[in-house]
Task: inverse folding
C-alpha cells in the first residue's frame, strides 16, 4: 500500500509518513488474521489438512550406491561413498541437483552417472555442458575415468556458423557415449522456431491466467504489472522469426539427438525470468537461462521427466529466489502440485517481507523498500528442495 499526495502541478508524490503508518497497520492486520485462522476448530482442521497435503507429505528417501559395480571404470579410480550414493540417486530420480561443495568430485560423479545411464539404456545421448575454460580438462578427466569411451568434444570452431551443420550431423548420426560442449557452445545451438514459439505461448498463457486471477480478486501481481510483462513477451514473440542465431539450413537443438543434459556450474543459469512485486526479485532473465529453460522444457515434453542433472557448489549465493529457480528447472511438477508455480505464491509460503524506510542511493532522501527479511515454514521448504537436491557440504 502506498499513500500519495497531489501536488500543485497535478503530479502524485509518495507521502512517506502516511505510507509507513498504513503499512504498519497492514502488518498488524496480517498478524491478527494469522491468529484468527486457527481460532475456530473446524477451519483449523481443514487448513491443517490442506497444508499437510501440499507441503508436509514428503518423505525423503536415502540412497545407497554401495552395490554399483560401474563396469568400464578405470581400475585406478576408487569412488568415494558419497559419489556412489549420488550416482545411484541420479539413476533413481528423473532430475537431480548435485549441490556438492568444491572438491567433492562432481565431475567424476556426473561422468559415472552418465556412463551408467547410457549402459542401462536409460538415455541414448547425454550431453555435458561445462564452463568455457573447462572443456579440455573435463574431456581429459572423462577419458581418464573411462578410457574406452567414445566421446564427441565440441570446441569453439565446431560450433561456429560454418561448422555447426557438420557438428550437428556428426552428433546425430553416430552413437556417442557423451557429447561434451561449453556453455557458450550449447547456447549457440538454438531450439527451433516452433519450439520457442510454443514455449513463449505457454508462458503468455500462464501470465494471462494470472491476470484473470487478479481481476477476479485473487492474490498476485497487479493487472498493470502483468500486462507490462505480457507486452514484453509478445514483443519477443513477434521478433522470433528474425532471430539471427538461426541458420538458414534449419540446424537446431532438436536435431542433435541429445536426450539428457549434465550441466556443470549451474549457478551461471540462475537468472531465469521471474515476475514478482517484491523489490529486487523481478528480472527479465538472461538469454542463457531462458535458452536452457526452453531446452529442458522440450526434453521434458519429448522424453518425460528424466531430463537433467545440474551441478554447482553454490546453489544459493545471492538471493533465496535462486532456490526457486532451481525448482523451476528441475521440479516444476512439484511446484504445480503445491499450487506455488508462480514466484509470489512460493514466496508467500516460505518467506516474509518487511517494508522499511531506507536512505536513497543519492543520500538526499528516503524511500520505502520491501525486502525479504526472514524465512517461514523452513522444514517444509527444505523437504521440497531436498527432494531433488543432493546436498553435500
Result:
Amino acid at each position: 500500500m502506498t499513500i500519495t499526495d497531489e501536488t500543485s502541478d497535478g503530479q502524485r508524490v509518495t507521502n512517506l509518513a502516511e505510507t509507513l503508518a498504513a503499512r504498519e497497520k497492514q502488518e498488524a492486520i496480517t498478524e491478527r488474521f494469522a491468529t484468527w485462522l486457527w481460532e475456530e476448530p473446524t477451519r483449523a482442521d481443514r487448513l491443517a489438512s490442506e497444508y499437510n497435503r501440499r507441503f508436509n507429505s514428503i518423505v525423503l528417501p536415502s540412497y545407497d550406491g554401495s552395490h554399483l559395480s560401474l563396469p568400464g571404470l578405470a581400475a585406478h579410480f576408487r569412488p568415494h561413498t558419497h559419489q556412489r550414493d549420488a550416482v545411484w540417486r541420479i539413476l533413481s530420480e528423473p532430475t537431480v541437483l548435485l549441490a556438492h561443495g568444491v572438491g567433492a568430485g562432481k565431475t567424476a560423479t556426473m561422468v559415472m552417472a552418465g556412463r551408467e545411464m547410457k549402459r542401462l539404456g536409460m538415455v541414448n545421448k547425454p550431453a555435458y555442458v561445462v564452463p568455457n575454460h573447462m572443456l579440455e580438462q573435463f574431456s581429459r578427466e572423462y577419458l581418464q575415468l573411462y578410457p574406452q569411451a567414445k566421446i564427441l568434444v565440441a570446441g569453439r570452431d565446431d560450433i561456429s556458423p560454418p561448422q555447426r551443420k557438420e557438428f550437428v550431423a556428426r552428433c546425430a548420426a553416430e552413437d556417442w557415449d557423451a557429447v561434451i560442449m561449453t556453455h557458450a557452445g550449447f547456447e549457440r545451438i538454438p531450439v527451433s522456431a516452433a519450439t520457442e514459439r510454443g514455449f513463449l505461448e505457454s508462458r503468455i498463457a500462464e501470465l494471462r491466467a494470472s491476470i484473470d486471477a487478479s481481476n477476479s480478486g485473487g492474490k498476485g501481481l497487479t493487472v498493470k504489472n502483468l500486462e507490462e510483462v505480457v507486452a514484453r513477451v509478445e514483443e519477443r514473440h513477434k521478433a522470433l522469426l528474425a532471430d539471427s542465431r538461426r541458420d538458414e539450413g534449419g540446424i537446431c537443438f532438436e536435431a542433435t539427438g541429445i536426450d539428457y543434459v549434465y550441466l556443470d556450474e549451474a549457478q551461471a543459469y540462475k537468472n531465469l525470468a521471474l515476475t514478482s512485486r517484491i523489490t529486487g526479485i523481478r528480472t527479465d532473465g538472461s538469454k542463457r537461462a531462458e535458452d536452457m529453460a526452453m531446452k529442458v522444457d522440450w526434453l521434458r515434453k519429448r522424453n518425460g521427466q528424466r531430463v537433467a542433472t545440474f551441478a554447482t557448489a553454490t546453489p544459493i549465493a545471492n538471493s533465496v529466489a535462486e532456490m526457486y529457480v532451481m525448482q523451476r528447472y528441475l521440479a516444476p511438477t512439484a511446484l504445480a502440485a503445491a499450487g506455488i508455480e508462480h514466484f509470489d505464491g512460493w514466496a508467500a509460503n516460505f518467506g516474509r517481507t518487511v517494508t522499511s524506510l531506507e536512505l536513497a542511493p543519492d543520500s538526499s532522501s528516503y524511500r520505502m523498500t520491501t525486502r525479504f527479511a526472514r524465512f517461514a515454514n523452513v522444514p517444509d521448504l527444505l523437504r521440497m528442495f531436498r527432494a531433488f537436491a543432493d546436498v553435500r557440504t
Remarks:
- The radius of gyration is 24 Å.
- The chain has a mean pLDDT of 86.
- DSSP finds 15 helices and eleven strands in the chain.
